Amino acid sequence: MSKKSIRFFNDREVRAVWDEENNCWLFSATDIVRAINDEPDYTKAGNYWRWLKRKLKQENVQFVSDTHKLKIVAADGKQYNSDALSAEDIILLAKHYPNNRGSKFLDWFTYSDNTIDGQSRKKAYTLFESDLLNSLEPGSIKCLQQLHAYLFGGLYDFAGQIRNKNISKGGFTFANCLHFPTIIPAIENMPETTFDEIADKYVEMNVVHPFMEGNGRSTRIWLDLMLRRSLKRCVDWSSIDKYEYLTAMRESVVDSSHIKALLKGALTDKISDREMFMKGIDYSYYYEEE
Q1: Rounded to an integer, what distance in angstroms lies between the CA atom of residue 203 and that of residue 209?
Q2: Structural domain boundaries in the chain
Q3: Residue 143: is its pLDDT beyond 50?
Q4: The domain 118-288 is classified under which CATH number: 3.30.559.10, 1.10.3290.10, 1.10.260.40, 1.10.150.130?
């Protein structure tokens, strides 16, 4: 199965597939236009891309991957051949984009993978083929620490280490680390046989926020591992809206019904599907973008 990736700009997905022959990623041209223009309508974005391609061709701007096509799933659920651009083409497009709207996109595209999140996401992609997932004990704190260490090793000096400082985010203060010797073992020992039990365990660990940074990205994989073992299910994260998810997680401190409904509605039996895993990583990291 070909490698696929989804990244986000202006909260618009930019899809890509790996070209084995040329050893590079190819990105959906329509997605790029939709992201740059912040255009909600795929049809309008597609029309704009076709107009822009003709315009640039008249200006002797020629893309090297002009003949490349991607199979992209449209709004009607069917796959269609769509124009694809290489990284070199995207740089060329951004430099010639009308009204300089492409400059911000180019900055994001050029540098985002060199950030801590970008480097960590590359590590997350390799999890699917690694032996680590099969060696972990789902639901244990050691499992969560190993996931965190894998994702952020070499990026944070506290990778895999339970925090010894108190932290807060968005005005909410997470569990006091002085109580961790009691709290964390209690959460670890929570049952994980049913969906509700697993969701409760996930919510409690989120409130604890055991690491200085990188909690959400680690605990979402941790959640999926519990679901896979006990229910032979995992979460299709791409079907959960970013802002509804974040709202539900904030609410879960006092009421977990919203996040449980979102998670339950997104369950799938595609637990061994590589594309589902990769898509889940992309969306998980997207949730963390400001």
Answers
A1: 10
A2: 4-113, 118-288
A3: yes
A4: 1.10.3290.10
